[in-house]
Automatic annotation (TrEMBL):
The active site is at residue 102. The lineage of its organism: Bacteria, Bacillati, Actinomycetota, Actinomycetes, Pseudonocardiales. Signal peptide: none annotated. A motif (Histidine triad motif) lies at residues 100-104. This is Histidine triad (HIT) family protein. InterPro entries: Histidine_triad_HIT (IPR001310), HIT-like (IPR011146), HIT-like_sf (IPR036265). It comes from Amycolatopsis arida. GO terms for molecular function: catalytic activity. Residues 7-116 form the HIT domain.
């Protein structure tokens, strides 16, 4: 595990400061330090899994907790009624840079399309 992969564990342990938005027994939600939308909050399970596929296979209940926390964040941020996006980047080609599964909750403005179109 690299230093980057340990970052979220250190945030969960409160060794690294973060702007915490919401916390449950199993998840922690905090603001992204490089926001890609007006609202950009990361939701991480307190137990480390490499990516969403690994989490889904090992602990579907915890994956459900992550999604429930993402919705709660949207409510707290006032974007649940206007629309929001929940994104999991899975592995490097998809843009995952920290290999501790995390959901991005994005909203608070009109979001554009994502991904690249290739003909």
């Amino acid at each position: 595990m690299s230093d980057a992969d340990e970052l979220f564990l250190r945030i969960i342990a409160r060794e690294v400061p973060a702007d915490v938005v919401y916390e449950t027994e199993t998840t922690l939600a905090f603001r992204d330090i490089k926001p890609q939308a007006r609202t950009h909050v990361l939701v991480v399970p307190k137990t480390r899994y490499r990516n969403v596929a690994e989490l889904a296979a090992a602990d579907p209940g915890l994956l459900a907790d992550v999604i429930a926390t993402a919705h709660k964040v949207a409510e707290l941020e006032g974007i649940a009624g206007s629309g929001y996006r929940v994104v999991f980047n899975t592995d490097a080609d998809a843009g995952q840079t920290v290999f501790h599964v995390h959901a991005h909750v994005l909203g608070g403005e009109q979001l554009g399309f994502f991904g690249r179109y290739r003909s």
